[in-house]
Amino acid sequence: MKQQGPGRRVRIYIGESDQWHGRPLYTAIVQQARKRGLAGATVARGIMGYGAASVIHEPHLFRLSNDLPVVIEIVDTDEKIGAFLPCLDELVHEGMITTSEVEIIAYKADR
Length: 111
Prior knowledge:
This protein is an alpha+beta fold. It contains two helices and eight strands, in the order βββαββββαβ. A hairpin with a 2-residue loop joins strand 2 and strand 3 (23-24). The chain is globular and about 50 Å long.
């Protein structure tokens, strides 16, 4: 079954080492999105990047831990994304959040 309509995308740009109460921040964000009934979330780990401090983050062979860039992307209705933004205000202390209007085309199996 195909569903189509307007929506909103939120992208959260953070570092892989960012924490929330002792666990990865990206985990906390995805769990909060699921708890609040958002359609879905995807976490992507970047291979290189830099942010406001202009420090380049990239993997190094001899370093055990890296602070690579992470992007969490969530797409849902404008209303659900708007209701989720205050939650992100609580969770994200350093990073960037963008939102944009999107056209959603979702394919779901008939069950």
